[in-house]
Write a structure and sequence with these properties.
The protein is an alpha+beta fold and 146 residues long. The protein has four helices and six strands, in the order E-H-E-E-E-H-H-H-E-E. It has one domain: Archaeosine Trna-guanine Transglycosylase, Chain: A, domain 4 (Roll), CATH 2.30.130. The protein is 18% helix and 36% strand. The protein has a six-stranded mixed β-sheet with strand order 2-5-4-3-1-6. Strand 3 and strand 4 form a beta hairpin.
Length: 146
């Protein structure tokens, strides 16, 4: 299963993943919705930056994914702290994700840069920066033929 994931450019998430500084991504929401329960070992994550217009720059393989049960604010913050060595979140990111009732912790491996390609950014619209796409080819934009 392929997933399209928007990374925080201000926190330099892509750079920190490719350099091995961080090895885990977190996603959370107030209600149970994708990727909660829909991402698993062996899936492929394709990364776009939140500051760009739908340009995929890298991909990674999911090593492990854990979807939490419903959490209260304190429990969600504790989960972030427990995983901080792998997440390497900034203070701003901790504030963003802390307090989310449903969380997904995704450990990645085999991170590799790709020849950048465009995707239909509308698939991320209203998805909080994560879309389960099935096959990346379905959302890949091809240059117009002459």
């Amino acid at each position: 299963m392929d997933h399209l994931v928007c990374l925080d450019s201000e926190a330099k998430e892509l750079e920190r993943l490719t350099k091995g500084i961080k090895s885990m991504i977190v996603h959370g929401a107030a209600e149970r919705k994708p990727p909660h329960g829909q991402v698993g070992e062996g899936d492929t994550l394709y990364f776009v930056l939140d500051s760009e217009d739908g340009l995929v720059r890298a991909k990674a393989r999911v090593k492990n994914a854990t979807s939490s049960p419903m959490l209260n604010q304190e429990a969600s913050i504790i989960r972030l702290i427990q995983n901080q060595r792998k997440l390497m979140l900034t203070e701003q990111q901790v504030r963003r994700w802390g307090g989310r009732r449903y969380m997904v912790f995704v450990e990645v491996e085999q991170i590799e840069h790709l020849e950048p390609f465009c995707i239909d950014r509308s698939v991320l619209s209203g998805k909080d920066g994560w879309a389960v796409v099935g096959d990346i080819a379905k959302v890949r934009k091809h240059p117009p033929s002459n």
